[in-house]
Design brief:
- There is one protein chain.
- The protein is mainly beta and 53 residues long.
- It has one domain (4-52): N-terminal domain of TfIIb (Single Sheet).
- The chain is 0% helix and 45% strand.
- The protein is built from no helices and 6 strands.
- It has strands spanning 4-8, 14-18, 25-26, 33-36, 43-44, 47-52.
- The strands form 2 sheets. It has a 3-stranded antiparallel sheet with strand order 2-1-6, with no helix packed on it.
- Strand 3 and strand 4 form a beta hairpin.
- The model has no long low-confidence stretch (mean pLDDT 96).
- Bound molecules: zinc ion.
- Zinc ion binds at residues 9, 11, 13, 27, 29-30, 32.
């Protein structure tokens, strides 16, 4: 089910990412990719801190 995830990058920045992101999501701080689209659930590269509804 699509939801928002709070993901922490290796640089320490945390941001919310849509679990079904359809494009690459980059960290707002260091520009490292945090999620890649995979047709359904995106592949998350950072650490999932928590799920937001
Ligand atoms: Zn980062």
């Amino acid at each position: 089910m699509a939801r928002f995830l709070r993901v922490q990058c290796k640089c320490g920045n945390e941001q919310n990412i849509f679990s079904n992101a359809s494009s690459v999501v980059k960290c707002n701080a260091c520009k490292e990719p945090l999620a890649h689209p995979s047709g359904g659930e995106a592949v998350i590269h950072g650490k999932i801190v928590k799920e937001l509804g």
